[in-house]
């Protein structure tokens, strides 16, 4: 009798585990439990959204609630979440490129209702109806995304303007004001792509290495490869900022290039507007004097807080894109390609001797260009590339404030089309 009772208890427990969140994979159960606790008084709204979601959309809704920032757990309502899910899945059913996506990409780069810290607008239905005509009858996703990029400005009537009310302006507010800067424009473009099932995310940097500002843009997943595009488009992986992005410092997170992730990655999106924790990781001593005081004041005002915008470090991809563009660009008759590597010591045959430093190139006193030399973990065939003039002498200034490095080299270019330059810090 005792065995029968024990078996009955096990069956009840197993049945309870299966029906706790019907239709939701067990991997989400503990995450949902935590989310509902954090939601407090708003938990019934989230539970209603999960309960009323159609069976085919259950896992997607579970994903969204499980990884939802706490600011949204306590405020978002069931109707908002259900409509967002309904139209995201409509796009998945309608467009072949969306239907073909792995769930992991669809959940993280199509289904989310927001990008960074913008207001949570109910944009999904409106954008689905607005941008479907540009995706209609397109043979492939690239044709669709280019059609949207070429027409979005006129469709939403939003132009670049620094007079916008806030940096991280939401789609509907940008359309109300008819203006936005790079963050707001990129949010508009990314949401337009997501509305028609194109996986998209924001990318950006907190500060260029030349300290002339920052920037945000959109990325799209094409043939399983992330490529970038802007609100005012050239074409994929082409824009004015490539040279700035290609000079990112892989050793300094202030200058990294980040891409946004809805699902937590363990790495904050340090390019986020609403991210005072960025100030807490800036070493003021590494900043130029002309911006140090401004950042000191920002650092003093910044309060440490938990991040809720997550990201990936995609710096190296942009460095590689820029270096590849230089390598593939046509050389003039009097130009050569300089392949620069910095070594910590004279053992230049080992990757462990490579030292990532800033390298500035001067002709006389005129600053021509700069970049960051490959790291010890980079492929030995990777170089910092500069287009320079044959037969001309240049000064290469190697610096790293963190390591107290400041050393100058003078090198005269030869007459071949390429020249390898090894800058050895300690002989």
UniProtKB/TrEMBL annotation:
Entries under InterPro entries matching the protein: Papain-like_cys_pep_sf, Transglutaminase-like
Family annotation (PANTHER family): CARBOHYDRATE-BINDING DOMAIN-CONTAINING PROTEIN, SIMILAR TO POLYHYDROXYALKANOATE DEPOLYMERASE
Name this protein carries in UniProt: Transglutaminase-like domain-containing protein
Origin species: Draconibacterium aestuarii
Residues covered by the Transglutaminase-like domain: 174-233
Domain of life: Bacteria
One Pfam family cited in the UniProt record for this chain: Transglut_core
């Amino acid at each position: 009798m005792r065995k029968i009772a024990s078996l009955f208890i096990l069956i009840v427990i197993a049945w309870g585990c299966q029906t706790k969140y019907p239709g939701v994979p067990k991997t989400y159960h503990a995450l949902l439990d935590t989310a509902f606790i954090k939601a407090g008084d708003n938990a019934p709204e989230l539970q209603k959204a999960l309960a009323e979601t159609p069976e085919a959309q259950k896992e997607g809704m579970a994903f969204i609630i499980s990884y939802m920032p706490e600011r949204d757990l306590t405020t978002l309502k069931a109707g908002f979440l259900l409509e967002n899910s309904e139209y995201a899945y409509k796009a998945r059913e309608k467009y072949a490129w969306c239907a073909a996506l792995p769930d992991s990409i669809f959940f993280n780069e199509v289904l989310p209702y927001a990008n960074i810290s913008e207001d949570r607008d109910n944009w999904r239905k409106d954008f689905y109806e607005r941008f479907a005509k540009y995706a209609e009858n397109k043979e492939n996703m690239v044709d669709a995304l280019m059609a949207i990029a070429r027409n979005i400005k006129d469709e939403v009537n939003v132009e670049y303007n620094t007079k916008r009310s806030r940096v991280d302006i939401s789609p509907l507010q940008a359309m109300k004001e008819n203006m936005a800067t790079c963050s707001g424009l990129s949010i508009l473009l990314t949401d337009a792509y997501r509305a028609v099932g194109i996986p998209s995310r924001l990318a950006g940097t907190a500060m260029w290495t030349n300290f002339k500002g920052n920037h945000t843009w959109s990325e799209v997943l094409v043939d399983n490869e992330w490529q970038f595009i802007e609100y005012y488009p050239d074409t994929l992986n082409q824009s004015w900022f490539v040279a700035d992005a290609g000079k990112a410092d892989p050793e300094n997170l202030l200058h990294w290039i980040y891409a946004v992730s809805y699902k937590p990655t363990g790495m904050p999106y340090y390019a986020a507007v609403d991210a005072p924790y960025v100030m807490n990781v800036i070493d003021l001593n590494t900043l130029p004097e002309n911006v140090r005081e401004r950042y000191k004041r920002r650092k003093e005002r910044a309060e440490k807080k938990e991040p809720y915008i997550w990201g990936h470090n995609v710096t190296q991809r942009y460095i590689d894109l820029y270096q590849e563009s230089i390598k593939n660009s046509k050389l003039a008759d009097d130009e050569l390609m300089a392949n620069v590597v910095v070594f910590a010591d004279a053992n230049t045959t080992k990757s462990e001797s490579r030292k990532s430093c800033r390298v500035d190139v001067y002709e006389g006193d005129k600053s021509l260009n700069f970049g960051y030399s490959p790291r010890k973990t980079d492929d030995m065939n990777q170089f910092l590339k500069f287009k320079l003039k044959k037969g001309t002498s240049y000064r290469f200034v190697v610096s790293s404030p963190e390591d107290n490095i400041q050393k100058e080299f003078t090198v005269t270019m030869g007459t071949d089309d390429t020249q390898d330059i090894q800058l050895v810090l300690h002989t």
